[in-house]
Amino acid sequence: MPTTTPPPLAGGTTGPAALRPLLDTVLTALHEGATLRDGPLPAGGPDTVAPRTRAAAHPLIPDHGTGPHHALATLVTALAAGAADPAHPHCTAHLHTPPLALAAAADLAASALNPSMDSWDQAPAASALEADLTTTLAAEIYPHTPSPDAVITTGGTEANQLALLLARERHGPVQTICGANAHHSIARAAWLLGLPTPITLPTPHGTLDPTALTNALTEHPRPHLVVATAGTTDTGAIDPLDTIADLCTTHGAELHIDAAYGGPLLLSPTHRTLLHGLHRAHSVTLDLHKLGWQPASAGLLAVPDHHHLTPLHHHAPYLNAGDDTEAGLPDLLGRSLRTTRRPDALKIAVTLHALGRDGLADLIDRTITTAHHLADLITTTPGLDLYQRPTISTVLFRPTGATDHTVATIRRTLLNRGHAVLGRTHTAGHLWFKATLLNPHTTPHDLRTLLDLVTHATTELLTPTTHPTESDTPR
């Protein structure tokens, strides 16, 4: 017989007491790791970070365990020290948000309770909360339909795949038509679902061109599924949604709008007009681990009528027996293609409840204002060129006269030094730095420092007598 007591569990009435000291260890380790990193990401690049992380974790399966506090302190510190931290104002490369503390705290509760969202008897309260959350958010997108609905997804990629799947189930092998600005998940979803390769229209000005779309709808046989984008990953551009919806109506095409990035603008009275026409789509992707400040994952696919989700229904007697359903137990298998899945609705609901419409609008407005301030700084900084004014919170810029090779090299130099995480995108014939601003705490001083880092690295690289090293520039 075993002589030791099993480790404590996170749930039940004793779980919180067991968690409390462990959380203190975790929080201390997060602080110590961030202090060791001392920047938006660790210096030294993969050749430094990987060995250091592996050394801290070795051996991953020791013969005798090190104990919970030592394991947590060691590995959480190592992970934090080696993280790209989206909460740092110079970590701006991707649509990778710094999560709100309250959302992360709610996620802890979800992990401790561990409801599985595939049957009511595993998630009685969580399933009710999810049902209310999805209908509430769907009504934000479709305010004029009687029974809008949504399903929670792992993010924009899964939501886009579901949109194509539902269109296929309604109309057969639909021909997807999208712009070159569309997310890569559209083409991948068509491939996974056995649909024709999407017709991809050029977007030389960053958005889907109505004339090109008209020609494509005229030339190619039906059924059509047009995919528009509200917030592209390269520039944050928003397609002309109302005009595209008009064309879809004229040509009998369905419309899916990928608003993974721009969708939360609906909650801002100042900026919601950018999404005019969103409600005319047959489905809409929303992703709150972008401009919603949620820990991943927090995606949704919304539809104007709950019956549009009927094709997702699936029967597994051990999870949704017919007599249980007839007796009133909710059937959850039709709420996702996944079986076991986390109660991601909790952190979203906590955030909405805590901040309200005005609090979320303030976060969105602050973030967009910050992006415009960065654009202003770029236009007044000698030696830097701005691509265009930001539509949402993505700002593209580059050193004046620099080659694409120079831009790429400067970006990697800043990464290797641990000074800044800037994205990159190729548009208008050039490679540009991409700053995707999602941190509402970023200050004008932070932005000025970021541009100073870029201009300093540019000067070093373009001055023949200078040979920059990883430690040349202070943080």
UniProtKB/TrEMBL annotation:
Names of the cofactor(s): pyridoxal 5'-phosphate
InterPro entries, A to Z: PyrdxlP-dep_de-COase (IPR002129), PyrdxlP-dep_Trfase (IPR015424), PyrdxlP-dep_Trfase_major (IPR015421), PyrdxlP-dep_Trfase_small (IPR015422)
Residues modified as N6-(pyridoxal phosphate)lysine: 290
Claim: Transferase is one of the keywords in the record: yes
Entry superkingdom: Bacteria
SUPFAM superfamilies linked to this entry: PLP-dependent transferases
A Pfam family this chain is assigned to: Pyridoxal_deC
MF GO annotations: aromatic-L-amino-acid decarboxylase activity; transaminase activity
Keywords linked to the UniProt accession: Aminotransferase, Decarboxylase, Lyase, Pyridoxal phosphate, Transferase
Gene3D superfamilies: Aspartate Aminotransferase, domain 1, Type I PLP-dependent aspartate aminotransferase-like (Major domain)
Family note: Belongs to the group II decarboxylase family.
UniProt protein name: Aminotransferase class V-fold PLP-dependent enzyme
Source organism per UniProt: Streptomyces californicus
